[in-house]
Design goal:
The protein is an alpha+beta fold. The protein folds into two domains: 79 residues, no CATH class; 154 residues, Sandwich (Immunoglobulin-like), CATH 2.60.40.420. Helix content is 37%, strand content 20%. It has six helices and ten strands; from the N terminus they run H-H-H-H-E-E-E-E-E-E-E-E-E-E-H-H. Strands 3-2-1-5-8 form a five-stranded mixed sheet, covered by helices on one side. Strand 6 and strand 7 form a beta hairpin. It catalyses: 4 Fe(II)-[cytochrome c] + O2 + 8 H(+)(in) = 4 Fe(III)-[cytochrome c] + 2 H2O + 4 H(+)(out).
């Protein structure tokens, strides 16, 4: 009887392993993609730290799940009712009770430690970041101000404001530390860039509401364009309240900010983001308009019902 049960257990283990291998292989994912468990590729050190925490938390959860599933299947397979005779009753099992107390406590303590370490790293800020950006959210768009860069005519900060017809570009340097200071002019919004693996709510009067409205990234590891979104339901056009982060090489960013501070001779006003990028020569990264998302027509009168509707 014992031999048969052992054979069945071995066969069940082989079948389970084969099904698991086929399931993983059929996805066509690389090891790196599997270990991200659906998260986007990180572009900042803070994002990679959060990805690692996520990966190993999921691995730990899966390990516990496999053990629990295995015990359930083992009980179902080998401890089915075989007769009317009751099995031997055990009132107390001190070693088992200690295991069930100690193991979960250790797991929670380890997860808490790594969570606290990662959180402290993500929230850490240096005394003097390379670039500071004031992010102003409003229904239903964004404004990005650069307080360290003033226009030559008005001495006001360089600013980019989105509109219904143009997605705002948050242009930043690759490889430099960036501090974001967030504030809303109306309701609660949320600043979210998927490749940052991070979002933070944007409150009106954040200091008055006792909110931490600043965060910092050590650097963006590569140049590129990354979509940004509002991640807090904020009204009618919340779903289309997008922006784009454009990470340029440091020299290109310096040139961009130099142009933004100057007056465009053709218009008589300071260069806009699109005009400055058009003036530069840095390939696809100098495309004057967003490439990761498109504006949404908010004028309801331009959309007509399909032919025959209501007839």
């Amino acid at each position: 009887m014992g031999l048969k049960e052992g054979t069945r257990a071995a066969r069940l283990a082989k079948v389970t392993g084969l099904v698991g291998l086929v399931g993983v292989g059929a996805t066509g994912c690389s090891t790196e993609e599997v270990l991200r468990f659906g998260w986007p590729v990180a572009v900042t050190p803070q994002a990679e730290a959060m990805r690692e925490l996520w990966t190993w938390s999921v691995v730990a959860a899966l390990a516990v799940g496999v053990i629990v599933w295995g015990l359930i299947l083992w009980s179902v397979a080998f401890h089915r009712k075989k007769s009317e005779e009751l099995p031997r009753q055990v009132a107390y099992n001190l070693p088992l009770e200690l295991v069930l107390l100690v193991v979960p406590t250790v797991i929670v303590a380890v997860l808490f430690y790594f969570t606290a370490v990662t959180q402290n790293y993500v929230n850490d800020q240096s005394e003097d970041p390379d670039v500071t950006v004031d992010v102003v959210a409003f229904q239903w768009n964004w404004e990005f101000r650069y307080p360290d860069y003033k226009t030559e005519t008005s001495d006001l900060p360089v600013s980019t404001v989105g509109s219904s017809g143009e997605i705002p570009l948050l242009v930043v340097p690759q490889g430099q530390s960036i501090r974001f200071r967030l504030e809303s002019t109306d309701v609660i919004h949320s600043f979210f860039v998927p490749e940052f693996h991070f979002k933070r709510d944007v409150f009106p009067q954040p200091k008055k509401n006792n909110q931490d409205n600043e965060f910092q990234i050590d650097r963006i590891d590569r140049t590129g364009s990354f979509v940004g979104r509002c991640a807090e339901l904020c009204g009618t056009y919340h779903a289309v309240m997008n922006f784009e982060v454009r990470a340029l090489e440091s020299a290109d960013f310096d040139r961009y900010m130099e142009l933004r501070q100057q007056t465009n001779e053709k218009t008589g006003t300071p260069y806009t983001a699109a005009e400055a990028l058009t003036e530069m020569d840095c390939g696809e990264l100098c495309t004057p308009y967003a490439v990761t998302t498109t504006p949404f027509e908010t004028d309801r009168t331009v959309r007509e019902a399909s032919s025959g509707a209501g007839k």
